[in-house]
């Protein structure tokens, strides 16, 4: 496999996150702000002329905005639980969150974007509240973490890694929506695209097809690089090489933060 995974230390040259800079409070502040930006981007798109734009996958193997947002929401919740687990246990061993399995099991693509956006924000605040009060000794406490390889990780690293997750996927969400707004659909419809509301069901069905429902498992596993990842990133469009990746296709998108 030649796809790249975002790093878990040092500088991520895709989103600019740096594990080596920034203090705890600043990192958490940024995390909460960027979570809010994820929420707002999703809300804004869902409130637009075609709410289902959030369910469009730019490529069959690349998650849609709602799928990324659901992932970010779940990451924030799982990581908050891990903070609590780390503080409560002598030798914490974190259970994998099964992020690829959740996509189908929790039906990410069918979830309500407004509810997802609200939950994402709520979990970000709760994570932030739990992280801000950690003392230096607590931040240094180790637990056995699964991604990218099973290894002891400090609580401080978990905070930073969570912040990287949010920053990385905030970029994914904004880039995807920047490409899709205004919607690149409509998908062919027999009737007139009457009211947005009436067309919603049709659009969902029409969109389900290009999203490659049947291939989801294989597709996502392929895109992510490992089925057993725990809290791994989903590289946008990293299936073959960078030229086909989202970053390659949306050079203008990364700065189009119209939210
Ligand atoms: Zn990154």
> What is the CA-atom radius of gyration, in angstroms?
18 Å
The tally of strands reads: 2
Separate helix tally:
9
Q: What fold name goes in the CATH topology slot?
A: Four Helix Bundle (Hemerythrin (Met), subunit A)
What CATH architecture would you give?
Answer: Up-down Bundle
Associated small molecules: zinc ion
Contiguous uncertain segments of 5+ residues: 196-230, 232-259
Termini distance?
35 Å
> What's the mean pLDDT score?
79
CATH class: Mainly Alpha
What sequence of helices (H) and strands (E) makes up the elements?
HHHHHEEHHHH
Q: CATH superfamily, called what?
A: dinb family like domain
The main sheet orders its strands as: 1-2
The domain count comes to 1
Protein name: DinB family protein
Organism: Kribbella orskensis
InterPro entries: DinB-like (IPR024775), DinB/YfiT-like (IPR034660)
Pfam family, one: DinB_2
Question: Any key phrases for this structure?
Answer:
single chain; 259 residues; Four Helix Bundle (Hemerythrin (Met), subunit A); disordered C terminus; binds zinc ion; DinB-like; DinB family protein; DinB/YfiT-like
Describe the 3D structure.
With 259 residues, the chain is mostly helical. The chain has one domain: dinb family like domain (Four Helix Bundle (Hemerythrin (Met), subunit A)), CATH 1.20.120. Helix content is 50%, strand content 3%. It is built from nine helices and two strands, in the order αααααββαααα. It is elongated. The two termini are 35 Å apart. The C terminus is likely disordered. The chain binds zinc ion. Zinc ion binds next to helix 6. It comes from Kribbella orskensis. This is DinB family protein.
């Amino acid at each position: 496999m030649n796809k790249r995974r975002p790093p878990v230390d040092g500088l991520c040259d895709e989103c600019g996150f740096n594990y080596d800079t920034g203090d705890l409070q600043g990192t958490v502040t940024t995390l909460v702000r960027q979570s809010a930006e994820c929420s707002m981007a999703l809300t804004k798109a869902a409130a637009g002329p075609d709410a289902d734009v959030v369910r469009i996958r730019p490529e069959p193997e690349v998650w849609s905005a709602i799928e990324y947002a659901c992932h970010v929401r779940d990451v924030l919740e799982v990581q908050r639980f891990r903070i609590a687990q780390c503080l409560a246990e002598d030798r914490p061993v974190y259970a994998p969150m099964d992020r690829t399995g959740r996509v189908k099991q929790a039906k990410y693509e069918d979830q309500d974007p407004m509810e997802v956006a609200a939950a994402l924000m709520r979990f970000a605040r709760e994570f932030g509240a739990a992280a801000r009060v950690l003392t230096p000794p607590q931040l240094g406490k180790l637990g056995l973490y699964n991604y990218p390889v099973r290894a002891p990780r400090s609580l401080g690293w978990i905070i930073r890694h969570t912040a990287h997750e949010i920053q990385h996927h905030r970029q994914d969400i904004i880039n995807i929506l920047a490409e899709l707004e205004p919607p690149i659909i409509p998908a062919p419809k027999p009737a007139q695209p009457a009211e947005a509301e009436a067309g919603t069901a049709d659009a969902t069905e029409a969109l389900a097809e290009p999203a490659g429902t049947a291939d989801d498992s294989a597709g996502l596993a392929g895109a992510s690089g490992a089925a057993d990842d725990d809290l791994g990133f989903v590289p946008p469009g990293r299936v073959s090489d960078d030229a086909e990746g989202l970053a390659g296709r949306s050079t203008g998108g990364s700065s189009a933060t119209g939210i």
